[in-house]
Amino acid sequence: MTTPRIEVGPSKDATTAAIAAALSESIRAAQDARGTAHLVLTGGSMGGASLVGLQHPQVGPVDWSRVHLWWGDERFVPSGHPDRNETEAREALLDRLGLDPSMVHAMPATDGPDGDDVAAATTRYAAELAAHAADGHDVPAFDVLMLGVGPDAHIASLFPHHPAQRVTGAPTVAVEDSPKPPPVRISLTYPAINAARQVWFMVAGAEKADAVQAALATGADPWDTPASGAHGSQDTVWWLDAAAAARIR
Ligand SMILES: O=C(O)[C@H](O)[C@@H](O)[C@H](O)[C@H](O)COP(=O)(O)O
């Protein structure tokens, strides 16, 4: 397990700018090493703002034709719905990139091939992940997996004291009673998240300071603070603004 690195910016804007710059560098490094990069996107305002930040002229160029895009979780609603993390990412960046659809691995929507059968859709996404994984693995070794963090320290759709957290035998889990609406979701599980080389938490705002402090506390239990259960195999980074970092001891 890697010791988390903490990067604090003076403001949310400064933090998302730093994330965007680091992301373009990590993508380039992954492509230099392995040809293609696997990037896992997140919903939430930090996820969207970081994708917007990638378009800043000071951020180095990214060869998007060699980036596989995945999602850490998704709200199970129709495609194009504003609640979908995919919709947010498309509006923030993806729709301007002319991407090859075969590189964009959005989680299924309720108007997809499985209709509103979330269990089948969850299994379908697991198969998509497996199709891009190395032999003997369930998921690709994601180069960077980004996570927003809720005020309850949830990540993806893994919530405190929710049984979805206990699923370890599959890379994906259906959540049918999320404590935060909308209730039906698909999430990566801890083993899938922790297969990533780099896990990046992206958090801003004073209302997240307690969650950040709890997740970074020695002996934190993921059952209570889900963010404490996610780690990259090579690097774990907490990208914070000053307000979110205020209570770290
Ligand atoms: O419905 C959800 O579960 C949220 O979208 C959540 O996953 C989000 O990513 C975090 O709450 C962080 O959100 P912010 O980046 O907006 O703080």
Automatic annotation (TrEMBL):
Under catalytic activity, the entry for this protein gives: 6-phospho-D-glucono-1,5-lactone + H2O = 6-phospho-D-gluconate + H(+)
> Does this UniProt record's set of keywords contain Hydrolase?
yes
Write out the pathway annotation from the protein's UniProt entry: Carbohydrate degradation; pentose phosphate pathway; D-ribulose 5-phosphate from D-glucose 6-phosphate (oxidative stage): step 2/3
Question: What would be an example GO MF term here?
Answer: 6-phosphogluconolactonase activity
User: Function of this protein?
Assistant: Hydrolysis of 6-phosphogluconolactone to 6-phosphogluconate.
One GO biological process term is: carbohydrate metabolic process
Q: Which organism is it from?
A: Leekyejoonella antrihumi
Query: What protein does this entry describe?
Result: 6-phosphogluconolactonase
**Residue ranges annotated for the Glucosamine/galactosamine-6-phosphate isomerase domain, each copy included:** 11-238
Lineage of the source organism? Bacteria, Bacillati, Actinomycetota, Actinomycetes, Micrococcales
E.C. numbers: 3.1.1.31
Q: Which family does it belong to?
A: Belongs to the glucosamine/galactosamine-6-phosphate isomerase family. 6-phosphogluconolactonase subfamily.
Keywords attached to this entry = Hydrolase
* InterPro entries in UniProt: 6-phosphogluconolactonase_DevB, 6PGL, Glc/Gal-6P_isomerase, NagB/RpiA_transferase-like
Answer yes or no on keyword Hydrolase. yes
